[in-house]
Model the fold of this input.
Amino acid sequence: MATDTLIEAPLQSRRAAADAGGESSFAPLRKNLDGGRVFRIRSADSYVQRQAANELLQDRYAWRGYHAVSLPADQTSNRITLSAFDDATTIGTITVALDGPEGLSAEDAFPAEIGALRREGLRVCEFTKLAIDPDTGSKRVLAALFHVAYMVAHKIRGYDVLVMEVNPRHVRYYQRMLGARVIGEQRLNRFVNAPAVLLSMPFDYVAEQIAEFGGRDDLAAEERSLYPFGFSQREEQGILGRLMAAQQTGSASVN
Done:
């Protein structure tokens, strides 16, 4: 995905924005900001973008009492970092780690579980280094980052199943919000010196949820997951087209 391939998403529904008094405006990201707001997602290719993602990561992980976490200096074909921006401010980041010669970081604590998925013939990827600016107060940022990461891993690169290491306190959140299931019980993640549980989701399931609920934030009250806050299938197709076109120009960092 090229750095100039921007993906825009509103911070609240268009209907809610209209109810607040603007025909096509969006709710302010923070209370002290005036006017409509959208946030943008792009791959964190440049030094400046990766530094900003690192600052957010280190701030959020330090707040939780974890050891310092940082991104590698550069993107690779199997490690793609996505960041969400409000203007020049990084408000969210996630890294898509695709299984390859160097393996996955989750193998350090959960080698048997990752090995079992591979033996089933599944192509495994990991979403890691997730951080969201708490000032956004928006599920939309998390949902949009997750949705674009899913597109990169599954729709573009053809991976079958997602794994994530999460703190035991957050297991129920991801079960409820994404439909994740536990495949590895609590162990120590040595990289952050904290307990972790291994979650998994087949991308076929994610695709089904997006098809049913994606872009339907009017269903959020009854469907209490992140999927209504993601993109609709029509929006997804448009984003995929842009990502694929960016690859064909040779300027994409996702290949």
Q: What stands out?
A: DSSP finds seven helices and eight strands in the chain. Helices lie at 14-19, 47-63, 111-119, 139-156, 171-178, 203-213, 233-248. The radius of gyration is 18 Å. Residues 14-35, 251-255 have pLDDT under 50 and may be disordered.
